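Could someone model zinc ion with this protein?
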Amino acid sequence: MTTIETVRGPVAAEDLGVTLTHEHIFTKNPEIEQQWPDPEWEGEEPMIAKAVAVFQTLKAKGIDTVVDLTVPGLGRYIPRIQKVAAATDVNIVVGTGFYTFKDLPTFFNTHGPGLMVDGPEPLTEFFIRDITEGIGDTGVKAQLIKIATDEYGITEGVGRVMSAAAAAHHETGRTISTHTHVEHFTGRDQQAFFRNAGVPLEHVLIGHCGDSTDLDYLKEIMDNGSTIGLDRFGMEQVLRDSDRIDMLVQLVEEGYEDRLTLSHDAGVFSINTPPSWRSRVAPNWHHANISDNILPAIRERGVSEASISQMMVTNAARVLTGRK
Ligand SMILES: [Zn+2]
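Reply:
Sure, complex below.
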């Protein structure tokens, strides 16, 4: 039996159910917030209660599992997530990795092969430790490996993260899940990098592909073996949901349903795009948008229950399983 690590412990892959594959709960920046608290962070207990309420609502709408890809660089803090997980029926899966578009924090300038504090690449050790031993002293294990490239491409710092992700994949078999910038087609560079690093592209989930309306680009990424994320429903400041729906329907009609995963990249709180900004600029960017708006819309367009289940249950479980 294949089991998937969740915040509450292992769950059989076939029991994950309907899964949102790329979400966030709390995106924070402890160093900034310790000096300059964000007025929209209402405090630990109120924000945890808010997240629990969101997750209980999701469960009632048929969502069974949520993948929280808030990795270091985005303020990952597992004890807070454990409190949410303890009070909801939704499975929460977390990741390791590092989120940066350009540079790594100063610690990594002095630690690593050939650097001042010479030694093995700490990122590789950290990623593998999160997966095999657990995160800090929480006992919670990471299931996926997250990396990001954006408009700056594969900088020196991002390249170190990606090399460490490839090494952690080879060691653990876990899927690498990515952030991309579709205007720069960074999914292509990611696939080339990981192919060179010997990572089978079926074990790389190229994220944020739903921001694109370039069918040829998306099909190229999938034809190379990767599953893609139509994972930003509601992020209408980037692309309207009507366009995202058109792309989804088109790809299903062309037979790509076994390569698609659905999610929102939403959050309960983000210091980077705070709740008041989100409700003003992108009011549908929340964790229930797929359940409330997207699924009814694609059903109306002829997408079958079997296709929805393929995307939200089967493909999600396959990605979360990684190499058997
Ligand atoms: Zn994200």
